[in-house]
Amino acid sequence: MVESEIISKVKKSDALAQKQLYNLLAPSLFATCLRYTKSKYEAEDFLQDSFVKIFQNINTFRSDGPIAAWARRITVNTVIEEFKKRDLLRESHDLQTHGNHLPDNSVNALSVLSFQELRNLINRLPNGKKVVFNLFVLEGYNHKEIAELLNITEGTPKSQLAKAKELLAEMHRIQNEDAG
Hints:
With 180 residues, the protein is an all-alpha fold. Helix content is 72%, strand content 0%. The chain contains 9 helices and no strands. It is elongated.
């Protein structure tokens, strides 16, 4: 069945079409959830919550873009909302001291990592920095969008991103020293 036919049937609450849509989207949405949490079980919970919202809001989907992008945005918003409820985004940080300054060696160190190595390092970041890094680098949000999504000032994601990159580079450096 073609994606547009599946969506049309999901809008009519067709259970088989819902299962087909789930099978189509679940692998990539699960990967999105995993980027925000260390736990496979928590990622599964986020995925489940996301699909509840996807099916509840399927009638708002406009076919002018891919369903995967629409569903990914719902998934990211679901994860962020849950983090806000749990107050997992709050952490002590100095808002503007780091600005956009990032030493060149940090960027160079991160550019040689495999995706799996980078993902493992990202999972070790504090929640606030991990969320901002994922939203900016992996999801393509800009600083203004991140600030609005997280209800923070626009300078905060800039600072969080710079600090996240510094921490990732430092963790990578330490990891290499330990291995060598």
